[in-house]
Amino acid sequence: MSDPEKATPAADTSAEVDEVGEEEEEGTKPNVLSLPPGLGLDAEIQDIPAEVERRIKALKKIQVEITQIESQFFSEMHELEVKYAPMYTQFFEKRREIVLGKYEPTDAECDFSLSGDDSDTGDVNELVNKLKLESEQKSGKKEEGGEKKEAATVSGVPEFWLTIFRNVGMLSDMVQEHDIPIIKHLNDIKVEMTTEPMGFQLFFDFSPNEYFTNSVLTKKYEMKCEVDPQDPFSFEGPEIIKCSGCKIDWNKGKNVTIRVVRKKQKHKQRGSIRMVSKTEEVPSFFDFFNPPEVLDDIDVDEETQIKLTSDFEVGQYIRERIVPRAVLYYTGEALEDDYDEEEEEEEEEEGDDGEEDDDDDVPHGHGQAAGGGKGRYNRKRDNSSAKQNECKQQ
């Protein structure tokens, strides 16, 4: 058996020989091109031979050609959406009539259940019964003799769109208490796809109310689906580049986006005091129809950038999710799907963070819920490019 004390020095000598061998190898490596850090390359390929770098350039050129095909694909997909949009109209119109109580569905039309899943039907029935009970409590009145009058019949689906606004987080954050009486008058939201320019327009249909005279409020979004020659690898699909709102004709004293504040003002020389009125902006959902005005090729400040980014996400979410699946956001079923998608994205992001802790400062996308990063309509996430997020007020 060998002596352990004699074996130790031999191991040390072997380690030293290995280290020397590595240094000699590195010093004699031929045709090495050192790449600058921060290119997203692994540590093992920070230094690569020049001939390999040449091949990488060829691969990047191929990637640009692939991106051009992606651009064509998304453009044609938008044309398909425009083509198929009229086919949905009859169904959206019937939904509107049922919600407003203008059409009562037949027993056959109400005979619906998902096979093997009675829980959905139970949830819907529970919601309907709850709304019916609330309506009876509001409408029922007691006579002097103590007998209760028959409650008024519920018409349509009360507060359909207001309930959706309350259920969806990004919309409920925008809605203030003073907005609620107005949103109760919201009859419908429609989407119109456009080709020249590429984009879409939202129509908010209101019943007559004491707040403004408009019957319809509009919001228009313009998109582009072009590969930037200077930055082709940033292409992720069509992106919103402009938006415009509309003028709301508020009735006198009913503009919920501003408030008039009366303050005392003292004259510097005479010392007399007078009351002056000052108008201040108040947060409101209806600011959505008055987005920040940005001129072409003018850099925007960070606050405006944040507002525009949020605006684009809301507009896209309404177009892509809420309008096509409104009843599921009313019942809350679609919210569960959104929550599941967000959970999956968070798990993926956590996995990425676990592998590369240095990427903590890289902003993450919002997935399909925000219209980005999933092959649908999205926006570039480079905040230094103001032109990508400009918004014009008509």
UniProtKB/TrEMBL annotation:
**What residue spans carry the Basic and acidic residues bias annotation?**
380-394
> Where do the record's region annotations for Disordered lie?
1-36, 333-394
Please note every region of biased composition (Acidic residues). Answer: 15-26, 334-361
Q: Which residues form a coiled coil?
A: none
Q: Which InterPro entries match?
A: NAP-like_sf (IPR037231), NAP_family (IPR002164)
What biological-process GO terms show up in the record? nucleosome assembly
GO CC terms, sorted: nucleus
Q: Which family does it belong to?
A: Belongs to the nucleosome assembly protein (NAP) family.
Q: What's this protein's name?
A: Nucleosome assembly protein 1-like 4
Query: What is the species of this protein?
Result: Orchesella cincta
